[in-house]
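User: My advisor asked me to double-check a structure prediction for Zinc metalloprotease before group meeting. I don't want to rely on an old file, so could you generate it fresh from this sequence?
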Amino acid sequence: MQILGTVLAFVVAIGILVLVHESGHFGMAKWMGVKVLRFSVGFGPALITRRFGKDQTEYVIAALPLGGYVKMLGEEGDEAMAAEDRPRAFDALPPGKRFLIALAGPAANLLFAVVAYAGVAWLGIPGLAPIIGDVRPDSLAAQAGLVPGERVAAVAGQRIHSWEDLRLDLIAAAIGRSATRIDIIGAAGVRQSHSLPFGKLPADAIGPDFLSHGVGIEPYLPVKVGAVQPGSPAQRAGLQAGDRILAVNGQRIGTWETFLRLVEAHPGQALLLQVATASGQTRVLTVMPESVRNAQGKTIGRIGMALAPVPKDLIVIEHRGFLSGLLYGAERTWQMSVMTVEMMLRMVQGFISPDNISGPITIAEFAGRSAQAGLAPFLAFLGLVSISLGILNLLPIPILDGGHLFFYTLEMIRGVPLSTSVMQKSQQIGIVLLMMLMSLAFYNDIMRLLTP
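Assistant: Sure, here is a fresh prediction for Zinc metalloprotease from the sequence you gave:
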């Protein structure tokens, strides 16, 4: 059922984004007076076909939902058509109007992202409070002087509301590879500033675990026992629901991730736990993690306990009004667009690893997770992927919209279109480049599945 839900969420997400993109081309073409022959969401065999309007445009939902297209009269340049239809052919338009039609698809994706992020602001999305629970030794955070218990207030002057805000703003700052100011509020309520030296950041640090492995911080999430499996090492040690684990082998524990890493790293080895009971008493227990093999065949430790729900005082949620939400949507779309472009440039320069390129498997996984989390997280996911789709299509690669924009710009400069042979060779090169990019994305997806 979980796999089915993931696939369904992926199909719905891609269908929405393709519909938005192609509607941009379609709407601009109709506004320019071009006769549209077909509007297809998906490729391959048609599942549903209908004809509407004066031009009897064919609307299609096809079997493969990984794309779509708008077919316009005269788009291929050598079509037979009635004399009265000739003025309404795509190739009869001046290059400036063809440029606008090609641009309308990516523009529609970016506008949709504004609305999606505005929807997130209107609904409000729960997030984890930006409180630092753990700082890894010798990390950038440790060099900057960050300590557990501090609450992040701002990054480069931008207010931080949740841990997700912190992650996005620090990734954007890290792409620039310059020292970035981070403002914190300490345990005593005193506000201080630190500088994160992102110029020292390795190329492979930016990724899904950027805050943990790149910056060296974990969110504050008390290790409170939610349930104990019968007959497990946790039960034999005396752990009970409601207990809070304060330290392991004398090391203070402020995050679930830190505790999990310690347990997994000590299969068959005794761990000394300092525990605070639900009644407020403190006691010391010894637990022996059992040895198990994970999906990658590696031996790790397990104790058989589950984490309690996140305390309500650590969950933050912010709602915005209509105009404020639209402004947030525009600001977030601009921020994510700039970050996407900068990440692409840094990737070409070798400052960011190409491992960050994701394919349909990873996208489907995130689609399923966000859909299960609720409407607001799903809208945030749609906004992010819509921006990626819009920016990707603006790349000057033949076969993509950006390639067409490049050709139309050359035509406007030269006064004549490129020759048919040049266009055909360019399209072939574009197909090869796109296949290489897709192959890298699939490779990264598969490696993520195989890597523990």
